[in-house]
Design goal:
The mean pLDDT is 81. This protein has helices spanning 2-13, 18-36, 43-54, 59-76, 78-84, 99-104, 108-141, 146-163, 168-182, 208-216, 218-226, 247-251, 254-268, 274-289, 302-313, 319-325, 331-342, 351-384, 392-409, 415-432, 438-461, 465-472, 474-509, and strands at residues 185-186, 193-194. It has one domain. The chain starts with a helix and ends with a helix. The protein contains 23 helices and 2 strands. Helix 8 (146-163) crosses helix 9 (168-182), helix 10 (208-216) packs parallel to helix 20 and helix 22 (465-472) packs across helix 23 (474-509). By secondary structure, the chain is mainly α.
């Protein structure tokens, strides 16, 4: 692994693509900042729509482009949260507690700079932790055989379903639907067709890209169309002449940023929890540790630094289970999984041994993205503060065009447009009924690997599967036995964290 890490430097800096990488990462950051600054349009939707663009690039260019969109979007959501009390993303909800009061005091720019510096420091630190952890975990993953992999994948699906938003009952329904949809097409072991109903387009299974765009982008577009307002936000803002963050004020925030970075990094390794919970936990920890907790909610810079550092620290660690085991921790990493697969980089135990240098080069691009993030965020802050008042009529039609074009260009198959429409309408109905699509997507993505690993385990065990697991694969048996306990423990922890978030929100509202 150490050799792969060293080889990543000439791949990144000596490939002739370095200037191209800088350009596309900067472009991705700007797209993310733009979309994040618009209340109602999510970073997830932006990544789903621009995903097909990355397919026409080199892997070392296309994947960092998506990572740039991701990083820019998470911070971009703090802009309307601070200026007009409307979070651009769910991760910025906690930022609305102290952001608007600071804006009313003429400190909107100071609050935005606090959010930017906290985000960059936390993101950069968590990316370093990711680079340090991914090698040892990948070496452990290489020791995993089909029985252990099947047990881990099954455990991961249950954890994601139990810790996602919404009730456990609804999440389990989505899990079952995702598994059922994944079974359409060919059996991964015997290559027999199933659930195709003699429809030719279904023989190859459901395509991932139209499904992702349909479930993540189309519902957001339709919900924004429902709103009759001509603009996302009616008010106009101007932060050019406002106060800036001083060095003394920044140094006073260092403990808060460090604490929230640790919280976000830890939460990022738990599948299904994500940035929203990390932001609230970071905010609660800062408030509890403060000698003046009564100032929170009235315009406290720590109330900006804590949630922004926590939600951005989640970004890096979510890639650890994705790259080493092929398990996406949330919807964003599910989209990144699609990008890796499309570029011929199948995440899993073998990825780091076969393509370790390229993977480390991509991770180094994440560090580069943070440097660009700091520069672009600082100088474009006044520009993106005006984005909140842009007209919907300019953006939504263009977004629809990109959604349909992106679904078509990957395979040039008209059937993909029908898949897009189906999953778009299906996702819209699920959103109205308050179902979280995360378990569905995760089950769909992980089901083929789970089925193949389980089929191999059955073959290895012959007619005595239980005996085989107990005598020859005790680790797999241990994981299976521990699955209910681990799932229950993580569900309880996730529920407790979400209750903390709900309690903080209710207090701030009251």
């Amino acid at each position: 692994m150490y050799e792969s890490f060293l080889n990543s430097f000439p791949i990144l800096f000596g490939s002739g693509n370095f200037l191209t990488i800088i350009f596309v990462v900067a472009l991705g950051l700007l797209i993310g900042l733009f979309v994040g600054a618009l209340p109602g349009l999510t970073t997830l939707m932006a990544m789903a729509i621009v995903l097909p663009i990355s397919f026409f690039m080199d892997p070392l260019v296309g994947i960092p482009f998506l990572i740039g969109v991701y990083k820019g979007g998470i911070f971009g959501g703090s802009i309307p949260a601070i200026l007009v009390s409307l979070p651009g993303t769910g991760a910025s909800v906690a930022t609305t507690f102290d952001g608007p009061p600071l804006t009313k005091q003429g400190k909107g720019r100071k609050a935005l700079e606090t959010a930017l510096f906290s985000s960059v420091i936390a993101d950069f630190s968590s990316d370093i932790v990711t680079i340090l952890l991914i090698g040892p975990i990948a070496l452990i993953a290489l020791l995993i055989g089909p029985p252990e992999l099947a047990a881990i994948l099954f455990l991961s699906i249950l954890i994601i379903s139990s810790t996602s938003n919404g009730s456990v009952g609804k999440n389990m329904i989505m899990l079952a639907v995702g598994l059922l949809i994944a079974m359409i097409g060919q059996d991964p072991i015997a290559a027999l067709s199933r659930f195709t109903f003699d429809v030719f387009e279904l023989r190859a299974g459901i395509p991932l890209l139209p499904m992702l765009i349909g479930l993540f982008a189309i519902p957001e577009i339709l919900i924004n169309i429902e709103s009759k307002a001509k603009q996302f936000v009616q008010s106009k803002v101007n932060i050019k002449k406002e106060q800036r963050l001083t060095w003394k004020e920044f140094l006073a925030l260092r403990k808060t940023i460090f604490r929230s970075t640790m919280i976000g990094t830890t939460i990022g390794m738990i599948p299904g929890v994500g940035q929203v919970v990390a932001a609230f936990v970071g905010y609660a920890a800062a408030k509890n540790a403060s000698p003046n907790p009564e100032k929170f909610g009235k315009g406290e810079l720590e109330g900006i630094a804590a949630p922004e550092a926590a939600n951005n620290a989640v970004n890096g660690p979510t890639l650890v289970p994705l790259l080493t085991l092929g398990i996406p921790g949330d919807n964003v990493t599910a989209i990144l999984l699609g990008a890796f697969v499309a570029h011929g980089l199948r995440p899993g135990p073998q990825l780091m041994t076969e393509q370790g240098s390229i993977v480390f080069a991509i991770l180094l691009c994440m560090l580069l993205a943070n440097v660009l993030f700091l520069i672009l965020g600082y100088f474009t802050m006044p520009l993106f503060s005006k984005v909140v008042s842009i007209k919907k009529s300019y953006l939504l039609p263009l977004t629809i065009v990109f959604a349909f074009a992106g679904s078509f260009v990957f395979r040039h198959n008209p059937a993909d447009l029908y898949f897009l429409l189906f999953f778009g309408i299906f996702g819209y109905i699920l959103k109205k009924l308050e179902f979280d699509v995360t378990p569905l997507v995760m089950a769909f993505i992980l089901a083929p690997s789970l089925e193949y690993a389980f089929g191999q385990t059955l073959s290895l065990g012959d007619d005595s599967l239980i005996k085989y697991l107990l005598l020859e694969r005790p680790i797999a048996a241990l994981i299976i036995c521990a699955t209910p306990i681990i799932t229950w423990k993580l569900w309880k922890r996730s529920k407790r964290l979400r209750n903390v978030a709900a309690e903080i929100t209710s207090k701030q509202v009251s």
